[in-house]
Write a structure and sequence with these properties.
Blueprint (H helix, E strand, L loop, with lengths): L1 H23 L1
Length: 25
């Protein structure tokens, strides 16, 4: 469960890294 939560957080972080530049640009 803990590992799963960490994995999910990493996926969200990657999504944010992709989305934020698009919003700023």
């Amino acid at each position: 469960l803990k590992k799963r939560k960490l994995l999910l957080r990493d996926e969200i972080a990657m999504l944010e890294d992709q989305l934020i530049p698009d919003i700023i640009a």
